[in-house]
Amino acid sequence: MSNSDIKAEQMRRSDFFYELPQELIAQTPIEPRNASRLMCLDRTSGNVAHDHFYNLCSHLKKGDLLVMNDSRVLPARLYGEKEGTGSFIEFLLLEQKGDKLWEILVRPGKKAKPSTKFSFGGGRLKAEILETVEGGNRIAKFECEGNFFTALEDVGQMPLPPYITEKLEDKERYQTVYSHELGSAAAPTAGLHFTEEMLDKLRLDGINTAFVTLHVGLGTFRPVKEDKVLDHKMHSEHYYLPKETAELIKKAKAEGGRVIAVGTTSCRTLESVGTFFGDMDEHEGYTDIFIYPGYRFKVIDGLITNFHLPESTLIMLVSAFAGYENTMNAYKIAVEEKYRFFSFGDAMLIL
Fold first, then answer.
1. Directed axis angle between helix 264-276 and helix 313-322, to 10°?
2. Where in the chain are all domains bearing CATH 3.40.1780.10?
3. How many other CB atoms sit within 10 Å of the CB of residue 322?
4. pTM for the full predicted model
5. Which bin fits 207, alpha (ψ -120 to 50), beta or left (φ > 0)?
6. In sequence order, which ranges of 165-284 are alpha helices (DSSP H)?
7. How far apart are CA 61 and CA 74, in angstroms?
8. 3-73+170-350, which class in CATH?
9. Per-residue pLDDT for the chain (351 aa), expressed as one digit of tens each?
10. Residue 155 carries which DSSP code?
């Protein structure tokens, strides 16, 4: 199926499948952060070149603007016990519903009936189940001494993706160096490759940086189950595009610079604003934008991204930007060249 004849209404999930050997799924982050490999894909010609992330600067030019997602991952996985019995329970925080009020995923669910109470970290955090909601999730009310998020940092574990089975020694390695808006259930992983020193060098070279916030939901790992791509329903995520970032985007465009999204989450934020509002300005809200081949990009001129799961909405987004054939060929080369895949894996620059 070529770029020219991949029609949205005919797209099948299986069109985005590729064979991935298990050993190419990166289980641990590389050190230092920017030592990861960088595949450079020319979306016009389809040409592929190989480099390292620390050389990113050499592929950019003065006046380019990198737009990054500054969302910070919540240590949202809690292991505790049921009060009274001491039996094991696992909570996964999904979305804040109010003051210390959260929608959660619980295992084992049969232990979490309304009015049941649980304790975490030797009582540092306590919770009571208030109700069961659609899909089997629960609403829980937490209580603790002092600030809830401080307690969560002390007691919680990083909610690593299901394909990562090794223990993460340093929690900060699943955070970008510029993360500060707490609220994600998963890291915006394209940004994991940047170091503070590298960001300083980029700015010295006249390559600007700007930030958006999109809180990544666990829906990012939800597989596409429908055979017809257009039947898939996207999860909704909260985003914020600051005025300062909107102004920097307009300035870069006016002066001939390229707007390069760091990660699919930054891309979805920018394209949501471009699609729903047209002009770049400060905006906040929820987006469930689904980007697949045939989509006309309104804002971005480049994309930095990791290598994504077969048949995922993320590989569909990349295919929309780089072209279907270019993308599937690049992934074939990445497997042959033994690139590292997924959250702790290598990066791709598409221009």
1. 70
2. 3-73+170-350
3. 25
4. 0.91
5. beta
6. 196-204, 243-254, 264-276
7. 34
8. alpha beta
9. 444 457 778 899 999 999 999 999 999 999 999 999 999 999 999 999 999 999 999 999 999 999 999 999 999 999 999 999 999 999 999 888 899 999 999 999 889 999 999 999 999 999 999 999 988 899 999 999 999 999 998 999 998 888 999 989 898 999 999 999 988 989 999 999 999 999 999 999 999 999 999 999 877 767 899 999 999 999 889 999 999 999 999 999 999 999 999 999 999 999 999 999 998 999 999 999 999 999 999 999 999 999 999 999 999 999 999 999 999 999 999 999 999 999 999 999 999
10. H
Place of tokens 């934020």: 269
Phi, psi of 17 (to 5 degrees): -90, 145
Distance between CA atoms of residues 12 and 270, nearest Å: 26
SS3 content of the chain, % helix, strand, coil (to 5): 30, 30, 40
For the domain spanning 77-155, the CATH number is 2.40.10.240
* CATH 2.40.10.240 domain position(s) in the chain: 77-155
